[in-house]
Amino acid sequence: MDVTIAVLWNWNHNGMPQALGISSSMKIETLVVCNGKHAMGVEWSKGILFLREAAARMRFRRENTAINTVGIMCDFVCTRSSFVAQKKLYGYLKARMGTRYPSMFEDDVFVESINIAKLHVFAACLSDLTVHAVARVASGGALEVEEARTLALHCHEAGLADNGDVLPDAGTVEAWRSAFVKRIADVHWQNAALAADCFTESPKALFKWAPIADELKRYDREIVENSIRFAFGEVTRSFRERAELPELAQDWRAQSVT
């Protein structure tokens, strides 16, 4: 399984950075704190950015386990949605800002804008990847329309719950839920399994929410939107190779009966 290492840091009593642990959960960005506050400063920002980018590259093949239960599938959808959202958002910001990228993290307003953006992009990625994964299961496991719909709702809700401690206000999260319910009401699951148009929300969200001035962003739409589509290519290939579709459908039916 492809994993991403995230190093958790705090400041010790001597004012030096101290590693608290390593996580491969690929949940929403871990905060760097200093006495309960976000750590700022150009040098520390540069160091943290280096660690973040190095961690994103430290991907290794640990195992290639089958995705054969609904729980494993939901975890796959959630973690990959988080990974793609953060990778493409930070990648776009770095490309657009160039050498000013590290220093921008001294600006509290900019940092808050990033925090807002990454959550909205994550929600869109979760919506897209859930539809794709469930469509594959519905097609390969012969799920009925209602079975596919309830599986999609379950998977989407699991992704939100896994990141519940960092999600925005309840009203925003409820709006995400409502939008997803409306979206899957019109999904033709068999067609969605064969098409690439499941990934429609995340490109729009990345372009909309990235904290870049509109007069600059307007030149980037095609490149930015295609970048996140391409990033999902590797994720969907991994799911295709690992997912045991009849077993996933059977597991969902078994859960629905109990």
Low-confidence stretches: 1-27, 29-48, 54-62
Distance between the termini: 30 Å
Shape, please? elongated
On the 0 to 100 scale, the average pLDDT is 79
Helix/strand order? EEEEEHEHHHHHHHHH
Cα radius of gyration in angstroms:
19 Å
Task: Report the total helices.
Answer: 10
Structural class: mainly alpha
Helix content percent band: 55-70%
Which band does the percent of strand residues land in?
5-15%
Q: What's the total number of strands?
A: 6
Strand order of the largest sheet: 1-6
Largest sheet: 2 strands, antiparallel
Please supply descriptive tags for the structure shown above:
mainly alpha; two-stranded antiparallel ribbon; 258 residues
Describe the structure concisely:
This protein has 258 residues and is mainly α.
Describe this structure in words.
This protein has 258 residues and is mainly alpha-helical. The chain has helices spanning 42-57, 70-97, 108-140, 145-162, 170-184, 189-194, 201-209, 214-217, 221-242, 245-257, and strands at 2-4, 6-11, 17-23, 33-34, 37-38, 59-61. It has a two-stranded antiparallel ribbon with strand order 1-6. The chain has a two-stranded antiparallel ribbon with strand order 2-3. A hairpin with a 2-residue loop joins β4 (33-34) and β5.
